[in-house]
Design a protein that fits this description.
The protein is of the alpha/beta class and about 450 residues long. It contains 16 helices and 16 strands. About 40% of the residues lie in helices and about 25% in strands. The strands form 2 sheets. Strands 7, 8, 9, 10, 11, 12, 13, 14, 15 and 16 form a 10-stranded mixed beta sheet that branches. Strands 3-2-1-4-5-6 form a 6-stranded parallel beta sheet, with helices on both faces. The longest helix has 21 residues, at about 310-330. About 45% of the residues are buried. The protein binds NADP nicotinamide-adenine-dinucleotide phosphate.
C-alpha cells in the first residue's frame, strides 16, 4: 500500500537545526503537496529540545527528546536528520538509522569524510537514502549537481574555495592590508570564525570537503588524511600586494580533487593549498566569505558554482532539499528502478592518490640584511634542484630589521619545493616564518 506519511526526526537544534526545524514546520503543507504525501516533523532531539521547540513554536504533535535513540526506534520515523556535529555520537546515530533502513540527511563533513566507506556501505546494504548536500559549500547545490545534474557526464576536476573563514581573512588582507592576526580577530567578531579557528586556518576543514568531493568523483573513499594540506598561516598582506602588483595574481585557499587517468585504475590528485590565481581567473573574482567551485566535466565543460558556504539559512535550505529528496525515495521504496545508481559508491579499497602536478611557487623569506644573502638562498635552492624564475629583495627597512626576499620558482614537484624551502628556512641568515604559495598552472 502507498505510504501516506513520511516521518522526520531532526537531531540537533543548534545554528542549522533550529532554522531547518523552523522551515520544515512552516513549509510542511507546501512540502507535503509537492510530495503527494504528508511530510511530518515527528521528533526534534537536542539537549535543550523542549526549550528550543517551544521557542520555535513547534506544534504539540512534534515530540521532543534529549535522547536520539527514542526517535530512531520510533517506527513512524523514516528519515533522520543529523545536525549534531562532531564524530562519535553522530556516527552512532547515523549507523543506527541506516541499519534500521531509515534515510539519513547529514551536514557533517567531518563524519562523512572519515567514515565514507562505512556509511555508504551501510546505506547500500539496506537501500536507505543517504544525503549530505550541506556538508560541502553550505547552500550551493554542488553535491546534487555532481550526483544528478552531471550524472551522465565524466567529471574530471573540482576546484573550490571551500572555507569561508580563510577566504574572509585573505580578502581582508588583500583589500585593506589588514595584518593576519587582526584579520582573524575581525573574522571572529563578525561570526565568520570560531573561537578556536585552527581547523579552518590550517586547511583541515577544507580537506574534509575535498575528501567528500574526491570520494564522489572516484566512487571510492578518499580518506581525509590522503588530502595534502597547507593552510594560510604565515601569509602576510605584503605577500598578496606584491603578487598582485608583480605577478598579476591573487591568493585563494583552493581545494582540489582531480581524477588523473593513468593506467587501469584512476588516481586522485587531492590537496588544499593557498594558490596564486591570475586576477581574471573565475575563482579570483570571489570575495568576502562566500564559497565557489569550478567543475570541469568531459562534455559539459567548465561550470562555476557560487554562493553562501555556511550560515543558518543557506545550510538549512540544503538540508531541507535533502529531506525532500530522501522523502521521495522513501515513498518510491528501496527497490524502485534506478535507486541503486543514485546511492553514493564507496566499497573496496580507498582510492589511490596521484602526486600533485608540478607547479611554480612563490616563496618569501625574512632575511638578515647582510652581504651575500641572496646568493646563499639561490645556491641552496639550486643545490636541491629548484630553479628560480624570478627574485626580488624589498628595500631594506633600516636598522637591523630583516628584509623580505621574494622568489618565484619554475615548476617543480611539491615534495622538492617543501625540501628546498625547509633548507632555506634553516639558514642562519633567515629569520621568522616564511610564505609558500602555489601558482595556478
Ligand atoms: N553552522 C554552519 O553554518 C554550518 C554550515 C555547513 C555545515 N554545518 C554542519 O552542520 C552541523 C551542525 O552545525 P551547527 O553549527 O548547527 O552546530 P551547533 O550550533 O553546535 O548545533 C548542534 C546542536 O546539537 C546539540 N547536540 C550535539 N550533540 C548532541 C547529543 N549527543 N545529544 C543531544 N544534542 C546534541 C548541541 O547541543 P549542545 O550545544 O548542548 O552541545 C547543539 O544544540 C555540523 O556537522 C556542521 O559541521 C554547519
Amino acid at each position: 500500500m502507498q505510504k501516506k506519511t513520511v516521518g522526520v526526526a531532526l537531531c540537533g537544534l543548534g545554528t542549522v537545526g533550529r532554522e531547518a526545524a523552523r522551515l520544515l514546520w512552516a513549509g510542511r503543507a507546501r512540502f507535503s503537496a509537492r510530495l503527494g504525501a504528508e511530510l511530518r516533523l515527528a521528533w526534534v532531539c537536542d539537549r535543550q529540545a523542549a526549550r528550543e521547540a517551544r521557542a520555535l513554536g513547534l506544534g504539540a504533535s512534534v515530540r521532543r527528546s534529549a535522547d536520539w535513540r527514542q526517535a530512531v526506534s520510533d517506527p513512524s520515523v523514516d528519515i533522520v536528520v543529523e545536525l549534531f556535529g562532531g564524530h562519535d555520537e553522530p556516527r552512532r546515530l547515523v549507523r543506527a538509522a541506516l541499519a534500521a533502513g531509515k534515510g539519513v540527511v547529514t551536514a557533517n563533513k567531518l563524519l562523512l569524510s572519515r567514515r565514507w566507506d562505512e556509511l555508504t556501505g551501510a546505506a547500500r546494504r539496506t537501500g536507505a537514502p543517504l544525503h549530505f548536500e550541506a556538508a560541502v559549500a553550505g547552500g550551493i547545490p554542488i553535491i546534487r549537481s555532481l550526483r544528478d545534474g552531471l550524472a551522465a557526464d565524466r567529471v574530471d576536476e573540482v576546484h573550490g574555495i571551500l572555507n569561508g573563514t580563510t577566504h574572509f581573512i585573505l580578502t581582508a588582507m588583500a583589500h585593506a592590508c589588514t595584518p593576519f592576526a587582526e584579520a582573524v580577530r575581525e573574522a571572529q567578531r563578525l561570526g565568520y570564525a570560531e573561537k578556536d579557528p585552527t581547523l579552518d586556518l590550517d586547511g583541515t576543514d577544507a580537506a574534509h570537503k575535498v575528501a567528500v568531493l574526491g570520494s564522489l568523483l572516484a566512487g571510492r573513499w578518499l580518506p581525509p588524511g590522503s588530502v595534502a594540506r597547507q593552510g594560510i598561516t604565515g601569509i602576510e598582506p605584503g605577500d598578496i600586494a606584491w603578487c598582485v602588483a608583480e605577478l598579476k595574481r591573487t591568493v585563494r585557499l583552493v581545494g582540489t580533487a582531480a581524477v588523473r587517468r593513468r593506467g587501469p585504475r584512476p588516481l586522485l590528485e587531492a590537496h588544499v593549498r593557498p594558490t596564486l590565481l591570475p586576477l581574471l581567473h573565475h575563482l579570483a573574482g570571489v570575495h568576502g566569505g562566500h564559497n565557489a567551485l569550478l567543475v570541469r566535466a568531459a562534455s559539459a565543460g567548465v561550470l562555476m558554482f557560487y554562493g553562501a558556504g555556511a550560515g543558518a539559512g543557506p545550510t538549512a535550505s540544503a538540508v531541507l532539499a535533502d529531506v525532500l529528496a530522501a522523502a521521495a525515495e522513501v515513498l518510491s521504496g528501496p527497490d524502485a528502478p534506478g535507486r541503486a545508481g543514485s546511492l553514493p559508491q564507496g566499497g573496496g579499497a580507498p582510492c589511490l592518490t596521484a602526486p600533485e602536478a608540478p607547479a611554480a611557487h612563490y616563496l618569501r623569506f625574512m632575511v638578515k640584511d647582510v652581504p651575500g644573502a641572496l646568493a646563499r638562498i639561490a645556491g641552496t635552492l639550486g643545490r636541491l634542484g629548484v630553479s628560480i624564475a624570478r627574485v626580488h629583495q624589498d628595500d631594506p627597512p633600516g636598522g637591523s630589521k630583516p628584509v623580505p626576499v621574494r622568489l618565484v620558482t619554475h615548476a617543480a614537484p611539491r615534495a622538492l619545493i617543501d625540501r628546498a624551502r625547509g633548507a632555506v628556512a634553516a639558514l642562519p641568515i633567515v629569520t621568522g616564518p616564511h610564505a609558500c604559495l602555489r601558482l595556478w598552472p
